[in-house]
Amino acid sequence: MNTQDTICAIATAQGGAIGVIRISGKDAIAITDRIFTPVGKHPLPLSERKAYTMAFGHIRQDDGEIIDEVLIGLFKSPHSYTGEDCVEISCHGSSFILQQLLIRKGCRAAGPGEFTQRAFLNGKMDLSQAEAVADLIASSSAATHRMAMNQMRGGFSRELSALRERLLHLTSLM
Question: Cα–Cα distances in Å, from 103 out to 26, 96, 136?
Answer without folding.
Answer: 15, 10, 29
